[in-house]
Amino acid sequence: MDYHKVTEQELRRLREIIPEDRILTGEEIGEDYSHDELGGITNAPEVLIRVLSTEEISEIMKYANCQHIPVVVRGSGTGLVGASVALHGGIMLETTGMNRILELDTENLTVTVEPGVLLMELSQFAEENDFLYPPDPGEKSATIGGNISTNAGGMRAVKYGVTRDYVRGLTVVLPTGEVIKLGGKVVKNSSGYSLKDLMIGSEGTLGIITEAVLKLVALPKVSVSLLIPFADMDAALEAVPEIIKSKAVPTAIEFMERGTILFAEEYLGKKFPDSKSDAYILLTFDGNSLEQVERDYDTVAKLCIDRGALDVYIVDTDERKQSVWSARGAFLEAIKASTTAMDECDVVVPRNRVADFIKFTHQLAQEIGMRIPSFGHAGDGNLHVYLCRDEMEEKEWQKKLDTVFDAMYRKAEEYHGLVSGEHGIGFAKRRYLSRQYGEAQMRIMRGIKLAFDPNGILNPGKVV
């Protein structure tokens, strides 16, 4: 599709809508705005606009739609699939300035926020008011708008679910500039097609989220973690389906390998409580009484010992929790720091195939001659597998990337999994999504895109 370039005439019109000090062009736009966290896909916008309201976004979209100027929305830029990259130049709207927590409704157990509120800010605000916002993606500096746009998951999904489960209502600016409100504070809604749920996970291709009504739950009074070492990854992951079947309900079940822990130790300059074993499961249990939490973790501890666990470490003090979970939170950055470049395979498979998939990545690493560390959410089957360039030449790196990605996504399909568990499709995974879903599903999704965005100006080149 041909898009209109942003000329001086367009800039004059945009400056009538937005004060000039919030409009950046050319070299005024920092290099960071040309890529996301991984940086493998790059292109700079022609104009960067720091928006502050629904009304501003609406006016910009009305003009961009009439002029056929492509528009991309960006929050903190922490994505990993190129979803916030301005592939066709045009206008980039930065929403980090829309960062107000607008309302806490203690009667309806909701909080209303703007899209630029950071996850860590919302989590802290909720806890200060004795509530919990359960979605817990690893990148705490991501914006809520970005979390909703990718349906971010995180470590607490085993017990609490993902972002989609906590979005009650959205205010959205359509590519045409029209403003619509989807859902609200109601708990039930069977009123027509769920357009709200189409927005969640749409990666900024259908509309621009400018306000969100989110569900909260009561803050659990007790939280305890278990760190459980195993002799090898097979034994660790084979215990997970048994944990799921037990009557205990963990909040999180994470798996990690010794190599990844050592990267985190070096990156943080801090020792992990134990790094002698080849594989670990990290679990969290929460509840309103210590007795209930102790029953749950005691059940799982005994089950793991029976399945070959080497020990069980109880992580119940603030210092221990900080030591363990800060290391877990640093895995991505630690792996990134250990190599010259990397890319990520974010797949989800049925929980009983996690061990098989990880074994496959180990075999693939040996066969292809590439370092492929991994970690992930064993409790929901979402795996984060990292491909490390190390000392490879560019041509060799690109060739091996294609080979490994193709092999891993085919294996995920074989195991009845999907190409993304929580990071989305963006630009990087489009061909894998198309291959897995086939023409019928892709045609329906393209039809949905066309209904929302008839001129194809909003985040073009992504997802479908």
UniProtKB/TrEMBL annotation:
The name this protein goes by in its record: FAD-binding oxidoreductase
Domain of life per record: Bacteria
The species this protein was found in: Caproiciproducens faecalis
FAD-binding PCMH-type domain location: 40-219
Keywords: FAD, Flavoprotein, Oxidoreductase
Cofactor or coenzyme needed: FAD
Keyword ATP-binding: no
